[in-house]
Design a protein that fits this description.
Number of helices: 10
Shape: globular
Order of helices and strands: EEEHEEHEHHHHEHEHEEHHE
Strand order of the largest sheet: 6-7-8-3-9-10-11
Strand content: 15-25%
Radius of gyration: 21 Å
Largest sheet: 7 strands, mixed
C-alpha cells in the first residue's frame, strides 16, 4: 500500500499588520531543542510581552521572527511565521522589507561609529533610498530621542547604557518598522532609565507600531503590554491578558517575587497552592491548566 499523499500546508489568511507564529519548533545543532510548538499572535497596534527565565527560549523566538536565527546556527524544524499574511522564510532582509525590525539584546550598537552613522546604518535596510527620505527619518528619530540629536557626532561607545539603548531603538526606527521586536530593553539599566524606556515604548506604540516585547522585568512588561505569554523550557506555559497574568498567583510568585497572602490559599505540604478564589480567577491558560487563582492583595 502506498503512503497517503502529503497535503501542502495552507497559507495563513491575510490579517492586516498581524504577526502569527504557529507551532514553532527550533533547534540548535542536533542536541539542543530550544522551542517546542510555540504559537502566539501580535495583532496590529498591540503590545504583546513574552516572559520567562534565562534559557526559556525568548530570544530564540525573536530570532525566528526576525530571520536572524541562522546567524546563531539555529534551524526551524517545524512551524510557520506570518506577518501581514506573508510567510517569513528566515531571511532577515525579507523580514525588514516586510516591516519587521529587531532591537537585539545588549543593544549591539557600533561603538566606534558616531550616533549619526549608527542611525544611517539602520536606514540601509529600508526600501527608501533618497537623501531626503534619510533626512526625514533621522529627524523623526531625533524628535523621539532629543539626546541623540545633541550627541549626533559623538562616538556611540562613549554614551551611557540608557543612551545606547535609545540609539539601538532609534536605529531600528530608521527602517520605519510596522512591528518592532524588543529583546530585553531594560537590561542593565538604572530604575530611572527603565521608566524612561517604558515611556518611549508606549510612545512608539501610540504612533501605530506593533511591539513584541521580550523582557525579564515582568512588572514592566505586564504594565506595558495588552497580552502576554510565559515561556518555560521552550514551551508556552501560560498566556492571557496582561492584567489577568499580573493578577495570577503563579505569575506573582515566580516572576514578580511575591508570596501568597492569608485568604488567598497557602501552599500545602507539597508546595502546591490551594487557590481559595479559583471561582473568580482571571482567564489565564496554559498546557494542562484551566484557570489560575487570583491574587487578593
Amino acid at each position: 500500500m502506498s503512503p497517503p499523499e502529503s497535503k501542502a500546508e495552507p497559507e495563513a489568511e491575510p490579517e492586516a499588520g498581524t504577526l502569527r507564529v504557529s507551532d514553532l519548533h527550533v533547534s540548535y545543532g542536533r542536541s539542543v531543542q530550544a522551542l517546542h510548538g510555540v504559537s502566539l499572535t501580535v495583532p496590529q497596534g498591540r503590545i504583546v510581552a513574552v516572559l520567562g527565565s534565562n534559557g526559556a527560549g525568548k530570544s530564540t523566538l525573536l530570532r525566528a521572527v526576525s530571520g536572524t536565527l541562522a546567524l546563531h546556527r539555529g534551524t526551524v524544524e517545524r512551524g510557520t511565521v506570518h506577518f501581514d499574511g506573508v510567510r517569513l522564510s528566515g531571511d532577515a532582509a525579507r523580514s525588514v522589507a516586510a516591516g519587521v525590525v529587531q532591537v537585539p539584546e545588549g543593544r549591539r550598537i557600533f561603538g566606534a561609529l558616531s550616533v549619526e552613522d549608527n542611525l544611517r546604518a539602520g536606514f540601509l535596510g529600508s526600501a527608501r533610498r533618497s537623501r531626503a527620505e534619510l533626512r526625514a527619518a533621522r529627524e523623526r528619530v531625533f524628535a523621539q530621542f532629543p539626546v541623540l540629536a545633541e550627541r549626533r557626532r559623538q562616538a556611540a561607545g562613549l554614551m551611557s547604557g540608557g543612551e545606547q539603548q535609545m540609539l539601538a531603538m532609534g536605529r531600528a526606527l530608521m527602517a520605519a518598522p510596522r512591528l518592532l521586536l524588543l529583546d530585553e530593553p531594560s537590561l542593565g539599566l538604572a530604575p530611572l532609565m527603565v521608566r524612561r524606556i517604558s515611556e518611549i515604548i508606549r510612545e512608539i506604540n501610540a504612533q501605530g507600531t506593533s511591539i513584541l516585547l521580550v523582557e525579564q522585568n515582568a512588572a514592566m512588561a505586564l504594565e506595558l503590554s495588552d497580552r502576554a505569554s510565559v515561556l518555560d523550557v521552550g514551551q508556552v506555559r501560560l498566556e492571557g491578558a496582561s492584567a489577568d497574568l499580573a493578577a495570577a498567583d503563579e505569575v506573582r510568585r515566580l516572576y514578580l517575587g511575591e508570596t501568597y497572602e492569608t485568604g488567598c490559599g497557602a501552599p500545602d505540604a507539597d508546595g502546591d497552592a490551594a487557590y481559595a478564589t479559583a471561582a473568580s480567577a482571571p482567564s489565564v491558560t496554559g498546557p494542562g491548566l484551566t484557570e489560575l487563582g487570583r491574587w487578593n492583595g
